[in-house]
Amino acid sequence: QVQLVESGGGLVQAGGSLRLSCAASGRTFSSYAMGWFRQAPGKERELVAAISRSGGDTHYTDSVKGRSTISRDNAKNTAYLQMNSLKPEDTAVYYCAASLTGFEIGSIVDYWGQGTQVTVSS
Q1: Which of 55, 83, 97, 114 has the most CB atoms in a 10 Å sphere around its CB?
Q2: In sequence order, which residues have a C-beta less than 8 Å from that of residue 40 and are 6 or more positions away?
Q3: How many C-beta neighbours within 10 Å does residue 96 have?
Q4: How does pLDDT run across 21-61, given as a tens digit for each residue?
Q5: First to last CA, the chain
Q6: What value, to the nearest 5°, has the Cα angle with vertex 26 and ends 25 and 27?
């Protein structure tokens, strides 16, 4: 069983920055592609960013491309999401996720974190 614990969320003004962290238990962290999802009230959960097992490949949804960076430190069993130039529409609960099969369309998420709230004020 893998546990994922997010931290780093909070309240920020528009234009500000946050770095979210996802700490994973166990010794198989490097076996999983890691991703960050978010869900705002009344909207579907969407994939924000994903990173491959080695960290060599990354993906970003168009709405955050250019102002967000996903990274991972396999020695620390931790994944990160750096978010800059935050907008009110970024307000959501952000969830860390792990997948043995990656985050291509149709892939299965094996583990979810509990979520961390990000609120961006105007």
Answers
A1: 83
A2: 89, 91, 92, 93
A3: 27
A4: 999 998 889 999 999 999 999 999 999 999 999 999 999 99
A5: 40
A6: 135
